[in-house]
Amino acid sequence: MREAIRSDHGPSITVVHSLVGSEETETMLGLFKRKCLWEALTMGRACFSSAVSTGRLQDKVALITGGASGLGKAAAREFIKQGSHVIIADIDPETGPATASELGPNAHFIHCDVTVENQVSEAVGFAVTRHGRLDIMYNNAGITGRPGPPGIAELDLDEFDRVMRVNVRGTIAGLKHAARVMVPARAGSIICTASISGVLGGLGPHPYTVSKSAVPGLVRSAAAELGRVGVRVNCVSPFVVATPLVLGQIGAYYPGVGRARVEEVVRGLGELAGAECEEIDVARAAVYLASDEAKYVTGHNLVIDGGFTCFKRLEFPAPDQME
């Protein structure tokens, strides 16, 4: 029996099946696979598809606030890997330029304090001036605030205002000025970093919890308006990730305990066996929301927590403990 195996980019290969698994058949199939591999390497096309390919953000222009370290830096790295030009907007005048230099020619830094609206506006303007447009706005800048005291009766309202200025007002400023340039283009993706602390109470200090609870509300409100002109607005709510910010925050609860031990504790907090939430997981979620793969996703809070916020166990005592 003769069967033609055809490549998308060349003539068919005829294989003679005299016996299943014959040496001739195996040889011809091997040649066919090698031909496909050669085409993939030389022409950038493959006969066998891959679930995830590079170039998902090819030539897109992205602005990431808080992009110098932690989740923002991981997102910048992944955006660039997927073909994007990235503007890193950060308050840190030392780490920011160093990160941009590390990430290569498709990354550029601009100093930006998100609590100062003019600086957010200037960062957006910088992206548009340099690249002609803004396709992706990732409002990632945020702070956790001081770790205590935990009681609301002792809440420092000045500290509350400080956290809200960064996490809420800074996010609104990013939404506002991204919309200013995306609405005329009738296209764009705006992403904001929320938190599981905004999904479930009691996971962080009151100012942080309140501020991160506000972010999904901002997203839904903006999505309701901007969807009419083709601009999508979404947020990500990550689980605890062992970033420098988080390790510093949690380490404050354990004075004298080494950083490695604190990191070990953080990495063991999850519920999903065999996995932990890492910076790359949040970055890839942001890539999805920024990409055309999410073209019909808006107003959504993408929770990245290994199921942590979807259940609470009832810890019944064992039978022998009831006696």
Automatic annotation (TrEMBL):
One of the record's GO molecular function terms: oxidoreductase activity
Key words, A-Z: Oxidoreductase
Family: Belongs to the short-chain dehydrogenases/reductases (SDR) family.
Top-rank taxon, per record: Eukaryota
Originating species: Acorus calamus
Pfam entry (one): adh_short_C2
InterPro entries the UniProt entry points to: NAD(P)-bd_dom_sf, SDR_fam
Protein name as catalogued: Sex determination protein tasselseed-2
Gene3D superfamilies on file: NAD(P)-binding Rossmann-like Domain
